[in-house]
Amino acid sequence: MSDDPKQPDAPKPIDAPEQPDAPRTPLPPRTDDKSPSPGSEIANAGNLPTPESATTKAPVTPESQAALTGKAPSGSSTSGSTVPASSSDPTSIPPSAASPSDAQPPGGASPAIGDPAGSPSQSDLEKAAKIAEAKARAAAAKQAAGDKPAPPSQTGAATAAGAPKAPVKKKDEGPKPTDASNHPLVKKIRDKFGDAFLEASEFIGQLSIRVERTRIMEVCDFLKRDAETKFDFLSDVTCVHFPDQSDAPFEVVYNLYSIEGNERVRLKVATNEVAGVESVASVWPTANWMEREVFDLFGVPFSNHPDLRRILLPPDWEGHPLRKEYPLEFIENNWTIKHLPEFSEVQQEQLVQRRNYGLEILSMPAERRVREIFRGGKEVMTKDK
Known about the structure:
The chain is α/β, with parallel strands linked by helices. It contains eight helices and eight strands; from the N terminus they run ααβαββαββββαβααα. Among the domains are: 178-303, 2-Layer Sandwich (Beta Polymerase, domain 2), CATH 3.30.460.80; 334-375, no CATH class.
């Protein structure tokens, strides 16, 4: 007899009394892809063909799958859409067509798989419509550019390769001077001075009158004192150089302005550096410095001028910088030799270097100070150590 206490036996489960079956709630109808939704049954959709015996299984094909599910095969362009039902009565199908091998699905035969011509998709149709529209626009544009009717065959297609191109439109030319002989002011000068008037032109509203050289003083005095015109302000006196015109290479230009009438006129006189032009400083005192500037930079003399001398350059400077033949680069002349001390080769090289850097300009006070530095024995540019 063992000393281990015996474990009590587990209580046996008491059988629950049998209860009658509770009434079950019916499940709602299935609404998956393989069963139609309530109220969506298609009238006269026909019946599916009688399946073959369970022992004989036909191979599953896209067409057979479509026949069973009511959908087009997955390889077709209409995949995912329900095949429309046939409107014919299934009872009228002949026995030969009702055989399992030749039976048609309820929605009719599916289109060939992978054949876009037989079943074009919506994107293919939209693409074809856009291409046709683009071709029509191109044909219309070519027809408008060529200004001739396009053949009916090219209405929706591209133009033939050999069609001539539309001519290139030339650019619009700018404004040109026009004859101003009928201008009221020109008529007045012509009637007053006769042969003193040479020609008149107008360019974008600017009137220019060419006057004989010896009569410029009379014309200016008349335009200033006339009650109707009264050009009482001399805006500017300038000059233009035409080297090809040997007889009169210079053209002195007078810009007149009427303060009261708010009108402008330009007088032109052709001359050379020997004959010059008569001064109009007695008519407009402001012409004094303007004529001196023309004399300084162009070399045109003005007779009867109160103080004709250079105004920008030294009196003994050689040449006139605004002439076309005047050199643009730096040149040594008699004025620099006379008024500036001579340089050694080293000093000359240093001065050239400073000119290349734009630090000194000939005949300017800064360069004269450089000359003084050289005289004092100092270096212009510090040497590298």
